[in-house]
Amino acid sequence: MGAADLDAMAGLLGDPRVMEFYPAPKTRDEAAAWIAWNQRNYAEHGYGLWIIETHGGAFVGDCGLTWQDVDGVLRLEVGYHVGTEFLRRGLATEAAGACRDLARDELGAAELVAIIDPANTASRRVAEKIGLRELGTTGWRTVLGTTFG
Ligand SMILES: CC(C)(COP(=O)(O)OP(=O)(O)OC[C@H]1O[C@@H](n2cnc3c(N)ncnc32)[C@H](O)[C@@H]1OP(=O)(O)O)[C@@H](O)C(=O)NCCC(=O)NCCS
Fold this sequence. Notes:
Elements: H1 6-13, H2 28-45, E1 49-53, E2 59-70, E3 73-82, H3 91-105, E4 111-116, H4 121-129, E5 133-138, E6 141-147
Antiparallel strand pairs: 1-2, 2-3, 4-6, 5-6
The structure holds coenzyme A.
């Protein structure tokens, strides 16, 4: 994800349907800040959220790994957003599964979580399909996760 993705990312994160479970859709400036945050994560950790695209190069959304503060503890989270024209084709599951494999096989992560609004059925289903199970709650949100032995 880089500066050249601003139009696509602003379109994705500015779409109220994609951002239904967030406080509000993101402005273009907020989308630029999202890209900058991911670039800082690439520099600091070697990973972050990446662009999902089709084999033909069409922009689909983003997916990747970020550290999230969960009740004062940093935990590795898989996150994903898919544009409305690409929904329900298995793309979030494919991308999130690749991130799970990377966390487990390449990064040596101890666990992977996803922090999800209980009403966000689609997101929960993606998490379950890659092997995450309900662990508890943080605030009003559900924490799903798996440990890697
Ligand atoms: C969550 C999201 C990424 C799923 O993307 P997707 O590419 O459509 O997901 P997949 O095609 O891989 O589907 C995975 C599973 O979820 C199910 N699913 C997808 N959308 C669903 C919906 N709206 N309601 C119920 N189930 C849904 C699919 O049927 C599939 O399950 P199945 O194989 O048992 O049928 C997408 O809906 C999205 O971007 N939502 C908005 C952003 C968001 O909330 N992100 C998560 C923040 S925690």
